[in-house]
């Protein structure tokens, strides 16, 4: 009887203890360092996009250490793998903050992963830098959004098509999840405000990883044969893009006839594709690898040296991490501490050079200023900028084109310190019914 | 033929699998209280006939009646078993990961729905019956052994014990003595005759020694139909039967 | 503006209907010949150079467009070279002196050539030159301009291409040029195209109403999407009898096109079915015949796709001429690679698990995780580029049915694999042994069949076929470590739906699910369509618990 | 009567031990977390509470699978669906509790509905502002789905591979459906940003400890109920159905009803596990329906040892602890480790950890018997009921395609 008891007691506790011990071990460092958490999926469906960002963070931290570290200490990256599993993101975030005691976390790609870790950052009061373009409609005290809000990507792209290409008829094609849904809602409202008729907008959603695009591409072709210039605004995500573009190419849809502008297709995605049939299709980002500035050239060279791969591409979310990391470094130096509260206060207004030759600044709404570039896909898989905003665009967290969010603003400076301040009622907290 | 007075009544039954006729216009009648031995070469349709009677296989055509009035083709296995038809399989089929005792507990007749089973407690009457059956089948010392660990012969006995526990009106017994010693075979014959005092039985067996021991009417099946019927001596002297068994 | 083109001497041009890039490549090539061997009766070369030099000063696309128009207006055939180069993004100007050149990248430098004569003009580092930017709108203008210039080409295909371009972008001024071309035309099919192009131009001209009515008839007779597009656009602005005629034509074309659309749907369904068949057919062996619940099946497909990638990579770097053969070379290699991995899995793991099929599920799931991560470690997590050979690119039309070459080849290929497999299973002694082992292992082994080897080779065959499928699927899908995951569930659905252990069931299952999916998609949308198919499979299994082509009889029921 | 049987008979010590340990954990861990100061060696950090609380929910899920797979031979590849449905029911309650504290301050509509421009609450969200209603739905929705699905499937005698594949199809269809934003469950993002549960802040330490305790108690109850079921006559019937389904029919049992009951009870347990899981991880989204997740549950159960009640719990705890450790310490390698574990367990531990332990104990008992036999005494090695009940691998219908079993090294 005793034997049974102790053995099974051990089993039950062993798992708990194993977890505790295991997670505590990485803390054995020789000298005192400042730890930086890297929370990107290295396996599962999102690894395809996120792995590069992990490498970027390692690169940035190494570069910073070469410059002497931060506050006289070396930086140390703590890499974990949330494995494209959303609850695991929350668990790993908690582990990074509570167990590894990191000073800041750089991570997440999908909106759902960010949503999943939000409560953790709020509860444990740490900071997250989120580098990917997203649907907006959020501003949280502990999160800094270094990717594009819809007004920094989608709306300028539509403007370009309307003005430069004379597009009158629109296909909004997206993967069925929140970012495309919200972006398309915003675009629809925007297009209608510009006088586009309802029947000139076609909205289509497909599941994640959709691979058979024959019907939809034909639908697009048919929709485009109504005698008006037609364009496709694509919020198709991830893996579904390659078969989509292959089908476009094979069905002979040329950019001159029906251009496709995409918000989720960057240099990394195009690397898996023969782009010759796609020349002229468009993407809208805040950075292209082809951007011809000294900062960018230096960055690409250093990055290739770091990865020991002279063909390694760069992309927009990488630049977002570069900006975010430099902002954090500057804010920590300004505050003289890595304490999150101090950093959250000091980072607002911090400006750092971005790779497109301007200075990006952190705004009080925790979004940053960025230029918007429209690029055409080239035969070598690069984008060529065909249009860019004359100045920098401030990320608009609450879209002006959604009825419930147009009165909201975010301003994290004292005394307002509110992520959803309603300018109509003058109260913090959305509609402010209470 | 009249159905009344019969325990089992098959008329013109046919069934085909992918074009192969396993049973071909088979007619067979068993009176109440009768024991019948069925012989026939492999593929004669013996097991398929049992499948039809117990509801496992639906006949393509023909009538199958139990107890003179119940149309068995309209019922499934569980209903047919509840009406009182028990079956022992050719390959002894017992619950391997249960003890001998538990095998019998599951077979005892009684309510067959979920909740009684969930809250079932063994009554003194049931305990007595289990003891009886263990005695009859000589498995008393194996009561707590896993059925998987029984010898082939013991499994045969256990399955017969399960039949007894089920207490059906009609027993279908498929090759009960395969793998038994001579002494056990004789014992089985005696037991079946004993059971026949109160139950109707159909026995399928190849062992002619055993069939002779039973001393009952014999039906020989061939290619899904009755080839010959009568006493064992009559059947075994039938030329067609000899041809089937020896000729080809 | 394209009208003056007619007065140009005939150009020696060969235009293929395919890629634009090819068109331009040919253009440049023949033009270079032209420049050398003919003396163009052209505007003054110096004048041309003066216009071309304006490119350097053009600050935006509108300015560049103006220069393009100016060049086109000279109607000098010599302008085609710089225009083609511009469309290709190969026109540069030197920062130091604003001289315009055609440039080709060569490492860190740009090789320059004269825009008119293509004479070599040295090299400049990238930083010293500026590319003259081009966008879709510009490319469209250039395409229209070049289209007009090729109307008089001696090559029939070039004339057809020109007529097609003019058809899509009607300009009133074209009518005259087209009339002249029609008068000269001797080939019937080309003449037809020219007349159609004329009709579209007539609509936008100020010719009398009866001519326009005739034009509407001509366009309605074409019946294509482009024609419909043209008439629909015209209809909105038309008035009176013309509007009625256009509306009637649009209505009748729409109903014809609807018929074509359902035919198109059937084709898409078959094509989707062929993909499902390819994905599932290896599983029909490992799962259907052997009873191994092979969750690593998708990874075998993935290995096949990666083999294709490696083969193409080697060909690209070492034997570029063989690129069109890359798939043919990859096929046997993919079969061997996946087959070998399958063999190793069978020998190392699965042979210990026969009779415990549920355990094979767990073990092969583990194997699939390992294979995925291994590929991720070796090739990286991102998509790898696998190109389409030229014979698999593009599409052709049967009536209004658009058939892409890659889908057609995949359909043919899937059927070929299927019948080859059927032959192996039914007609060869190996197939006989395989079936014998499946039916009764003990009996087979006592008859002298070496069952372990038959098992191993059967599993390797199933895996190898999955690898072959990977070669085909690399043509339409991502080549990434997640490739296999996308197909595994669908594959199991197909095999189970068709009936385990029956190859014909897999064939029928794949095609019926494909067609069903494609017919649901237009009504329910892609997501809901897929859900409905799954629900239908679940309900179907209730009706036929052992699939479409179930084996019957006693032996089946364990 | 029931409890009398449980404590008097002492029929399986390890069940008793497991329940005692779980109840003890439910009391001790929250105390060590809340009452012991953070510096103390006995302090359990909140991080561990949340983590182990999550594992306990997984353990309950694995236990529910064990009831159908281990005891009844139904390999469900869709158990994650029941878990997720329970989680969604709880998530809907938590969403309604946010009230006007959402970012848009809309008192009725959850945020995701506001920014997708929904004007009113869909009908299926009614009632979820009441905890009792949500709690009822947590059990009712998965239970009902299992009942309907099982009624169709078992009545039509869909068994073996076919059943496994259609359960997979079921969870896959639900995955796709819940991804759709039009469904009204938040699409890919799911439900998140929870504030209160029963008026307590979900992020507070005490609430988290309470949820941990609730999970431990729920698991203890799950163990107890499962034990009651499998040790009753019905439990014997379950195993009989696993061994030879058609034989039970010829004895007059309705095998389909037996399976249906077990499947439904199991789905309800999975639903409860999901409901406890959601407030602890703070999010529920369609990812939980992923067929891969359900397969992982099967793996936990197999690692611990199916048909053993405590086995799946041990498996779930160990595998998840391993996953937590590997994804932190060796992120590049953890899929190799996980994959390798599956292969190793199936090859070398076909009966799981608990099965291995039983084997070892039986072997020891066997030695004692032979020693005793030589000494002339008679010791009856009563086989442990639950552990050994497993010994025949649940082949049944499965074994058909490949014929007789081949050599199995681990046996």
UniProtKB/TrEMBL annotation, chain A:
Family annotation (SUPFAM superfamilies): Periplasmic binding protein-like I
Pfam families: Peripla_BP_5
InterPro entries: ABC_urea-bd_UrtA (IPR017777), Peripla_BP_I (IPR028082)
Keywords: Signal
Signal sequence range: 1-29
Domain of life, source organism: Bacteria
Name this protein carries in UniProt: Urea ABC transporter substrate-binding protein
Organism: Allomesorhizobium camelthorni
Gene for this chain: urtA
UniProtKB/TrEMBL annotation, chain B:
TM ranges: none
Gene3D superfamilies per the UniProt record, alphabetical: P-loop containing nucleotide triphosphate hydrolases
Matches recorded under InterPro entries: AAA+_ATPase, ABC_AA/LPS_Transport, ABC_transporter-like_ATP-bd, ABC_transptr_urea_ATP-bd_UrtD, P-loop_NTPase
Record PROSITE patterns: ABC_TRANSPORTER_2
Keyword Cell membrane listed: no
Ranges of residues in domain ABC transporter: 8-248
This protein's GO CC annotations: plasma membrane
GO MF annotation terms: ATP binding; ATP hydrolysis activity
Keyword list, A-Z: ATP-binding, Nucleotide-binding, Transport
PANTHER family named in the record: CONSERVED COMPONENT OF ABC TRANSPORTER FOR NATURAL AMINO ACIDS-RELATED, HIGH-AFFINITY BRANCHED-CHAIN AMINO ACID TRANSPORT ATP-BINDING PROTEIN
Name of protein: Urea ABC transporter ATP-binding protein UrtD
Gene: urtD
UniProtKB/TrEMBL annotation, chain D:
Entries under InterPro entries matching the protein: ABC_transp_permease, ABC_transptr_urea_perm_UrtC, LivM-like
RNA-binding listed as a keyword: no
Cell membrane among keywords: yes
Chief place of localization: membrane
Source organism superkingdom: Bacteria
Gene Ontology, cellular component aspect: plasma membrane
Locations listed in the record: Cell membrane
Gene Ontology terms for molecular function: branched-chain amino acid transmembrane transporter activity
Any Pfam family hit: BPD_transp_2
Alphabetic keyword roster: Cell membrane, Membrane, Transmembrane, Transmembrane helix
PANTHER family: HIGH-AFFINITY BRANCHED-CHAIN AMINO ACID TRANSPORT SYSTEM PERMEASE, SLR1201 PROTEIN
Name the UniProt record assigns to this protein: Urea ABC transporter permease subunit UrtC
Gene name tied to this protein: urtC
């Amino acid at each position: 009887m005793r034997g049974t008891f102790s053995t099974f007691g051990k089993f039950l506790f062993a798992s708990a203890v194993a977890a505790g011990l295991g997670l505590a071990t990485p803390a054995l460092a020789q000298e005192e360092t400042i730890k930086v958490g890297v929370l990107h999926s290295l396996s599962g469906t999102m690894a395809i996009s996120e792995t590069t960002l992990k490498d970027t963070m390692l690169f940035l931290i190494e570069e910073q250490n070469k410059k002497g570290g931060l506050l006289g200490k070396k930086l140390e990256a703590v890499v974990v793998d949330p494995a494209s599993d959303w609850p695991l993101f929350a668990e790993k975030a908690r582990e990074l903050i509570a167990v590894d005691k990191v000073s800041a976390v750089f991570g997440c790609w999908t909106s759902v992963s960010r949503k999943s870790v939000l409560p953790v950052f709020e509860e444990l009061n740490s900071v997250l830098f989120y580098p990917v373009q997203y649907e907006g409609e959020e501003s949280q005290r502990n999160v800094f959004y270094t990717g594009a809000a819809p007004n920094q990507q989608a709306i300028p792209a539509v403007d370009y098509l309307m003005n430069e290409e004379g597009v009158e008829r629109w296909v909004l094609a997206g993967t069925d999840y929140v970012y495309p849904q919200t972006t398309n809602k915003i675009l629809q409202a925007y297009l209608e405000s510009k006088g586009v008729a309802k029947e000139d907008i076609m909205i289509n959603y497909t599941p994640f990883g959709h691979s058979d695009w024959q019907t939809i591409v034909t639908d697009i072709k048919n929709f485009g044969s109504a005698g008006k210039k037609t364009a496709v605004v694509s919020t198709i995500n991830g893996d579904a893009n390659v078969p989509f573009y292959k089908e476009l190419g094979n069905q002979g849809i040329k950019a001159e006839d029906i251009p496709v502008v995409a918000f989720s297709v960057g240099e990394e995605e195009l690397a898996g594709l023969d782009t010759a049939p796609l020349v002229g299709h468009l993407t809208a980002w805040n950075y292209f690898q082809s951007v011809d500035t000294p900062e960018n050239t230096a960055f690409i060279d250093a990055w290739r040296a770091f990865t020991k791969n002279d063909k390694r591409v760069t992309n927009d979310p990488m630049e977002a991490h570069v900006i975010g990391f430099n902002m954090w470094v500057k804010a920590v130096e300004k505050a003289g501490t890595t304490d999150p509260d101090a950093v959250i206060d000091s980072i607002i207004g911090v400006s750092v050079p971005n790779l497109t030759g301007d200075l990006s600044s952190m705004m009080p709404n925790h979004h940053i200023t960025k230029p918007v570039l429209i690029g055409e896909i080239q035969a070598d898989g690069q984008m060529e900028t065909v249009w860019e905003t004359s100045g920098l665009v401030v990320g608009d967290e609450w879209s002006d084109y959604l009825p419930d969010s147009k009165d909201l603003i975010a301003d994290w400076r004292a005394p307002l310190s509110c992520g959803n301040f309603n300018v109509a009622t003058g109260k913090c907290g959305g509609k402010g019914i209470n | 033929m009249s159905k009344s007075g019969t325990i089992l009544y098959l008329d013109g039954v046919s069934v085909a699998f992918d074009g192969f006729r396993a049973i071909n216009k088979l007619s067979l009648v068993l009176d109440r209280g009768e024991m019948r031995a069925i012989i026939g070469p492999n593929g004669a349709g013996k097991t398929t006939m049992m499948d039809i009677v117990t509801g496992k296989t639906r006949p393509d055509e023909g009538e199958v009646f139990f107890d003179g009035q119940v149309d068995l083709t309209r019922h499934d296995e569980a209903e047919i078993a509840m009406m009182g038809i028990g079956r022992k399989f050719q390959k002894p089929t017992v619950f391997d990961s249960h003890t001998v005792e538990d095998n019998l507990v599951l077979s005892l007749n009684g309510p067959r729905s979920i909740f009684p089973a969930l809250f079932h407690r063994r009554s003194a009457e049931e305990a007595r019956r289990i003891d009886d059956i263990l005695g009859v089948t000589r498995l008393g010392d194996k009561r707590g052994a896993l059925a998987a660990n029984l010898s082939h012969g013991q499994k045969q006995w256990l399955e017969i014990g399960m039949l007894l526990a089920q207490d059906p009106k009609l027993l279908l017994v498929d090759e009960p003595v395969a793998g038994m010693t001579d002494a056990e075979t004789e014992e089985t014959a005696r037991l079946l005759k004993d059971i026949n005092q109160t139950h109707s039985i159909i026995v399928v067996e190849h062992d002619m020694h055993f069939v002779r021991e039973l001393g009952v009417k014999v039906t020989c099946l061939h290619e899904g139909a009755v080839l010959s019927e009568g006493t064992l001596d009559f059947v075994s002297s039938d030329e067609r039967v000899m041809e089937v068994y020896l000729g080809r | 503006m394209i009208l003056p083109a007619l007065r140009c001497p005939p150009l020696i041009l060969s235009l293929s209907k395919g890629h634009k890039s090819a068109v331009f490549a040919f253009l440049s090539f023949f033009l270079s010949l032209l420049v050398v061997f003919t003396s163009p009766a052209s505007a003054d070369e110096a004048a041309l150079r003066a216009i071309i030099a304006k490119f350097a000063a053009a600050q935006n696309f509108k300015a560049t467009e103006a220069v393009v128009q100016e060049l086109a207006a000279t109607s000098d055939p010599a302008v085609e070279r710089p225009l083609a180069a511009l469309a290709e993004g190969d026109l540069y100007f030197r920062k130091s002196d604003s001289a315009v050149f055609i440039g080709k990248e060569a490492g860190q430098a740009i090789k320059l050539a004269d825009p008119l004569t293509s004479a070599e003009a040295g090299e400049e580092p990238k930083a010293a030159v500026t590319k003259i930017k081009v966008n879709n709108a510009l490319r469209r203008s250039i395409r229209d301009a070049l289209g007009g210039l090729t109307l008089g080409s001696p090559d029939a295909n070039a004339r057809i291409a020109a007529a097609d371009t003019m058809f899509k972008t009607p300009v009133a001024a074209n009518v005259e040029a087209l009339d002249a071309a029609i008068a000269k035309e001797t080939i019937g099919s080309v003449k037809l195209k020219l007349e159609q192009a004329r009709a579209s131009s007539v609509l936008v001209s100020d010719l009398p109403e009866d001519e326009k009515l005739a034009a509407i008839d001509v366009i309605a007779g074409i019946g294509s999407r482009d024609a419909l597009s043209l008439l629909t656009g015209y209809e909105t602005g038309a008035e009176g009898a013309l509007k009625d005629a256009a509306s009637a034509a649009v209505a009748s074309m729409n109903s014809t096109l609807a018929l074509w659309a359902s035919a198109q749907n059937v084709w898409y369904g078959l094509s989707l079915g062929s993909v499902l068949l390819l994905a599932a057919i290896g599983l029909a062996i490992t799962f259907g015949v052997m009873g191994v619940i092979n969750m690593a099946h998708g990874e075998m497909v993935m290995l096949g796709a990666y083999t294709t990638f490696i083969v193409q990579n080697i060909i690209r770097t070492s034997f570029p001429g063989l690129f069109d053969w890359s798939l043919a070379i990859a096929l046997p290699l993919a079969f061997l690679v996946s087959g070998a991995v399958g063999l190793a899995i069978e020998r190392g793991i699965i042979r210990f698990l026969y009779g415990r099929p549920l355990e094979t599920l767990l073990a092969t799931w583990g194997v699939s995780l390992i294979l995925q991560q291994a590929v991720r470690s070796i090739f990286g997590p991102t998509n790898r580029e696998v190109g389409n050979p030229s014979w698999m690119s593009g599409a052709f039309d049967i009536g209004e049915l658009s058939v892409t070459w890659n889908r057609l080849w995949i359909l043919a290929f899937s059927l070929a694999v299927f019948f080859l497999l059927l032959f192996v299973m039914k007609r060869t002694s190996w197939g006989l042994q395989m079936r014998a082992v499946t039916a009764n292992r003990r009996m087979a082994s006592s008859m002298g069949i070496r069952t372990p080897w038959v098992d191993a080779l059967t599993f390797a065959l199933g895996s190898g076929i999955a690898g072959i499928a990977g070669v085909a699927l690399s043509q339409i899908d991502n080549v990434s470590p997640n490739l296999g995951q996308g197909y595994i569930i669908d594959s199991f659905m197909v095999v189970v739906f068709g009936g385990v252990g029956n190859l014909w069931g897999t064939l029928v299952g794949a095609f019926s699910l494909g067609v069903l999916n494609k017919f649901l998609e237009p009504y329910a949308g892609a997501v809901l369509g897929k859900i409905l198919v799954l629900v239908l499979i679940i309900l179907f299994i209730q009706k036929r618990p052992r699939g479409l082509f179930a084996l019957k009889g006693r032996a089946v029921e364990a | 009567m029931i409890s009398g049987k449980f404590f008097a008979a002492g029929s399986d010590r390890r069940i008793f031990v497991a329940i005692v340990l779980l109840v003890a954990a439910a009391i001790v861990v929250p105390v060590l977390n809340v009452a012991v100061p953070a510096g103390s060696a006995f302090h359990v950090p909140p991080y561990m509470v949340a983590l182990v609380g999550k594992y306990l929910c997984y353990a309950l899920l694995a236990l529910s699978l064990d009831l159908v797979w281990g005891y009844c031979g139904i390999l469900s590849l869709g158990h994650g669906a029941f878990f997720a449905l329970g989680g969604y029911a709880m998530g809907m309650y938590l969403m309604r509790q946010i009230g006007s504290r959402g970012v848009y301050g809309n008192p009725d509509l959850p945020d995701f509905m506001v920014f997708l421009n929904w004007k009113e609450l869909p009908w299926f969200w009614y009632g979820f502002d009441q905890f009792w209603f949500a709690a009822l739905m947590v059990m009712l929705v998965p239970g009902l789905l299992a009942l309907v699905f099982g009624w169709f499937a078992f009545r039509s005698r869909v068994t073996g591979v076919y059943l496994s594949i259609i359960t997979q199809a079921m969870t896959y269809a639900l995955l796709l459906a819940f991804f759709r934003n039009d469904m009204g469950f938040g699409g890919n993002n799911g439900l998140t940003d929870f504030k209160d549960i029963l008026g307590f802040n979900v992020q507070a330490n005490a609430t988290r400890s309470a949820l941990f305790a609730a999970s431990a108690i729920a698991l203890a109850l799950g163990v107890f109920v499962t034990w009651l079921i499998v040790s009753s006559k019905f439990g014997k019937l379950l195993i009989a159905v696993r061994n030879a389904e058609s034989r039970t029919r010829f004895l007059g049992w309705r095998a389909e009803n037996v399976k249906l009951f077990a499947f439904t009870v199991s789905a309800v347990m999975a639903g409860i596990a999901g409901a406890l899981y959601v407030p602890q991880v703070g999010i529920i989204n369609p990812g939980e329906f992923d067929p891969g997740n359900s397969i992982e549950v099967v793996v936990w159960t197999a690692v611990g040892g199916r048909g053993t009640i405590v086995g799946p719990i041990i498996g779930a705890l160990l595998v998840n602890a391993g996953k937590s450790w590997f994804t932190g310490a060796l992120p590049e390698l953890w899929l190799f480790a996980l994959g390798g574990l599956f292969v190793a367990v199936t090859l070398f531990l076909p009966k799981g950890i608990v099965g291995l332990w039983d084997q070892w104990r039986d072997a020891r008992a066997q030695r004692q018997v032979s020693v005793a036999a030589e000494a002339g005494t008679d010791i009856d090695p009563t086989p442990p009921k639950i552990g050994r009940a497993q010994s025949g691998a649940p082949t049944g219908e499965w074994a058909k395609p490949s014929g007789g079993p081949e050599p199995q090294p681990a046996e």
